[in-house]
Amino acid sequence: MRKEYDFTEGVKNPYAKKLKKQITMNVDEEVIVYFKKQASKTGIPYQTLINLYLADCVKNRRKLSMSWDE
């Protein structure tokens, strides 16, 4: 290893804005089970699948639509 490195020609990380932030979130057990089943089918970790799904909602500006039948 060198004693010093020259970063004057350095370039900022273009992906820095896309870094993930760790949070704590309460999620229904059936939601976790669903995504874990999808994860086992696809080989993609369930947390990644949840993030991909939420990112798709953001990208496509999906509107929430909820109704409760009485």
CA radius of gyration? 20 Å
- H/I helix tally: 2
Strand fraction band? Answer: under 5%
C-alpha end-to-end distance: 69 Å
Average pLDDT rating: 91
Which sheet architecture does the biggest sheet show? none
Uncertain segments:
none
Shape: elongated
Instruction: Kindly report the oligomeric state of this protein.
Output: single chain
Kindly state the percentage of residues in helix: 40-55%
Decide which structural class fits the backbone: mainly alpha
* Element-level helix/strand string: HH
β-strand number: 0
SSE topology sketch:
Layout: H1 29-42, H2 46-59
Helix pairs in contact: 1-2
Task: Describe this structure as you would to a colleague.
- There is one protein chain.
- With 70 residues, the protein is mainly alpha-helical.
- The chain has a domain at 26-59.
- It is 40% helix and 0% strand.
Summarize, please.
40% of the residues lie in helices and 0% in strands.
Attribute tags:
single chain; 70 residues; mainly alpha; 2 helices; 40% helix; elongated
